[in-house]
Amino acid sequence: MKKKWNRVLPMALAVSLATTPVIAYANEFVPTPGKPYDDEIQKRLEDNVMEYEEIGRLIDVYNTTLQNLRETYKENKDSMSDIEELKEQIEDGSDQLANAASQLETTAESFKGMLGLESPMLPAGMSVAPSAYAEMVYSSVLLSHQSEQILLSADQLTEMTPEMMHIQILDTPRAALVAGAQSALIGYEQILLQKGSLNTTLELLQAVYQSSERQAAAGMATQNDVLSAKQNLDAVQAGLMTIEANEVKIRQTLCTMLGWAYNASPEIPEIPTVDPTRIEAMNLEADTKKALENNYTLRYNRLSKETLTYGSTEMQNILRTISAEEAEVASSMINLYSSVKQAQNELSNAQTALTLEQMKMDQAERKMALGMIGKLEYLQQKNAFATAKVNVRTAELSLLQAVETYDWAVQGNLTLTQ
To answer: What string of DSSP letters covers 262-284?
Structure first.
């Protein structure tokens, strides 16, 4: 039975949510103060399941940083008397994402240490695929960028109109928090995948080590072979310990961001694969136009321009900044679109490789049953097959992350360097 967590919706938040557009799954449902969602949606939010598709709503309802920002904005939208308090609240959200980024970076370093482990009986690179390491690094970088985006919005808090203030203390932090939580959950599943893969590799490495000891005793292998096998075994065991520790830390970060107690143990289902229609609907030219219209930094600077004196030095500077930012958005959209297409190709290649390994695995099963191969050879093929399956799932998650990053850029959440 799923354990229910008693999450309390603050009245101020409930009122604010009730006055904003809410998707109603039943035509007869109308949001009211204290009840922003219909019973079906609210019941799903209150269960003990952390679902990827619910991240946006969970952030909206339970993230304390966003709750505080909403309430403070409501109280101060017509004045900037509490600007320092606002900055501190925004920075809290940045800290959450920065911690998750650090945890993923540490895990990536563990993966890096296990790339290409070699021994006379172990195929090179059997433990951690380079693509898994690269994807973990990518996830950590994305989280760092979202953290920086929130910090930037805090740094830019000065005298501003309510609309400018809304962009800086509500729109930008919310988008960064949701996108960051998505990346963290994708990174969490990547860790689980690699942990499972490494456990399979560990079984093989133990067999390799035992085999090398027997061969050395029979004069068929050197002590260096035995030492190499032991070092590979130790490296994977140490890596697993690091990965398991970071698995706990990232789960705690996700729990804190999405409304659970930090030490809770919610069910975390497998993340759904990308709906192909999302990719089919991509139109680079039209999407770039939307991205230029929606980008939070550009929107803020365009509003800022309206507060400046025509022809002033400040006006000239902001016009140059806006022009450079528009060029950067357009260039970034091309790169993000290419990343989606590249991720599609990598998934196709991984699926082809898995088909081949499935055939080899079927052959190994038959040969093992007939006594035509030994345990070590069988375990080598079993590990290769498990690695191929992990590579497909990793490629699916990479494609999802690429699509999410592209869509967020269209919606306006794209960190600019200008």
So the answer is: TT---B-PPPPPPPHHHHHT--H
The number of beta carbons lying within 10 Å of the beta carbon of residue 42 is: 15
Give 28: exposed, middle or buried? Use CB within 10 Å, 0-12, 13-18, 19+: exposed
Contact 208, 376 (CB under 8 A): yes
- Tell me the sheet residues that pair with 49: 267
* Token pair 């991240």: residue: 55
Assess whether pLDDT exceeds 60 at residue 19: no
pTM of the shown model:
0.79
Residue 284 to residues 157, 336, 387, Cα–Cα distance (Å): 33, 10, 34
For 187-201, give the DSSP string.
HHHHHHHHHHHHHHH
Among 95, 100, 103, 25, which Cα is nearest to 57's?
25
- Torsion sign, CA atoms 363, 367, 368, 373: negative
With beta carbons less than 8 A apart as the criterion, state whether 272 and 51 touch: no
**Could you give the count of Cα atoms lying within 13 Å of 250 in the half-sphere of its Cβ?**
32
Look at residues 92, 402, 117, 82 and name the one whose alpha carbon lies nearest to residue 274: 402
The string of pLDDT tens digits covering residues 289-334 is: 999 999 999 999 999 888 788 888 888 999 999 999 999 999 999 9
Q: What is the rounded CA–CA span in Å between residue 307 and residue 323?
A: 18
As a whole number of angstroms, the distance between CA 305 and CA 121 comes to 66
For the chain, list the domains and their CATH numbers: 49-411 (1.20.1600)
Integer Cα distance of 39 and 71 in angstroms: 25
CA separation for the pair 267, 49 (Å, rounded):
5
Give the alpha-carbon dihedral of 95, 101, 103, 106, to 10 degrees. Answer: -130
Tokens of 255: 């729990």
If you search the block for the tokens 């590579």, which residue do you land on? 391
